[in-house]
Amino acid sequence: MKKVVVLGAGMVGRVIALDLAAEYRVESVDVSRANLARLEGTAVKPVQADLASAAAVRSVIEDADLVVGAVPGSLGFATLRETIAAGKNAVDISFFPEDALALDDAARGAGVTAVVDCGVAPGMDNMILGHEAARMTVRRFACYVGGLPFRREFPFEYKAPFSPADVIEEYTRPARYVENGHLVVKPALSDVEHMDFPEIGTLEAFNSDGLRSLLTTMKVPNMIEKTLRYPGHVEHIRVLRDSGFFAVREIDVRGAKVRPLDVTSAVLFKHWHLHEKDDEFTVMRIVVEGLAGDSPRRVQYDLFDRRDRRTGFSSMARTTGFPAAAVARLVLAGRVPQKGVLPPELLGADESVFRAVMADLAARNVVYRTTEG
To answer: DSSP label at 44?
Structure first.
């Protein structure tokens, strides 16, 4: 039986490990005893190791047939680099800020297949665009996505399925998008617009830097990604950001050197922490427009998913983890023969791969509804 090592046993990593354990030998690696304790009594073998150590990463993946990266973004690039150097195929959802394509030559040289950004967004939006681009000449691509709690609590009306520091990164990193064939850079949280969704009502959408590899791989003249939150959230975050609460440069506080970002993250954790039983949802809308031959074509993909009360899996963990698990199965089965660093849009162009991923998600009740026109 093939062996999969999942690096990171947090909310998403745990879902991936448990999903794959039905078919493979799975080990889940994390430094946190609390995270690993949640796997007790399952088919997943917990392994404690500090994945900030390159030596530890090399040790735990030594006999793996596939490595899944589900670590915090600050560790993602380094763990993927070590995985490639070890000659191991990989699927990664770590959403690290570095450019994964910088590791492409190393992956090709090692004969490794490394699928990156393989979650919901980035991830499924990339795959959908790749799929549609193989069927038409795409002129416009837009992705709107967010994960939110059903219970709205003032002032933020938000819960984070991952660390507040990673969320804050979305609020501070300049947003890149493409307009009329030109790269445009604007501050995050800019160009707020309101959108209506039948399952939840009105949400606000703002610019975020989620296109990532699409800026390099897809020659589409208009592409944008926006994050969704409850109306009013952006104004609260702007006050914190513009007042310096997200700054990374140390300041002196009573003789101690501290980063405002670290203090803010610690304070926000109690407000943003998503508890295991919190009811939450993921909402996503993808619009692809272009020409199929000489005819205009517009297709819209909609996803609305909520926490699974039977398994206890959060919606964000489900919608992020299940695509990674689906692609992991395909890599293990030899159905992704390409070598190098592969963003999901390159997989989506393969009709059989795209259909297999969609079928895997639908079997787990993660359903993308499509409408045309």
So the answer is: S
Distance between CA atoms of residues 167 and 160, nearest Å: 7
Give the pair of three-digit tokens for residue 72. 């915090």
Parallel, antiparallel, or unpaired: how do β-strands 137-149 and 223-229 relate?
A: parallel
331/325 Cα distance (integer angstroms): 10
Which strand (E) or helix (H) includes residue 278? none
Burial of 249 (C-beta count, 10 Å sphere; 0-12/13-18/19+):
exposed
- Tokens found for residue 74: 């600050």
Rounded to whole angstroms, how far apart are CA atoms 316 and 120?
A: 8
**Phi and psi at residue 96, to the nearest 5°:** -80, 155
Per DSSP, the residues of 197-237 read ETTTEEEEEEE-S--TTHHHH---S-EEEEEEE-TTHHHHH
Here the tokens at position 205 are: 């959408």
Which candidate, 134, 137, 215, 129, places its Cα nearest to that of 179?
A: 215
Domains and CATH numbers, the chain: 3-119+316-366 (3.40.50.720), 124-306 (3.30.360.10)
Alpha-carbon distance of 190 to 169, in angstroms, equals 15
**pLDDT, tens only, 290-323:** 999 999 999 999 999 999 999 999 999 999 999 9
Global pTM value: 0.94
What's the rounded Cα separation, in Å, for the pair 164 and 156? 12
Is residue 157 within 8 Å of 232, Cβ to Cβ?
A: yes
Round to whole Å and give the CA distance between 20 and 160: 25
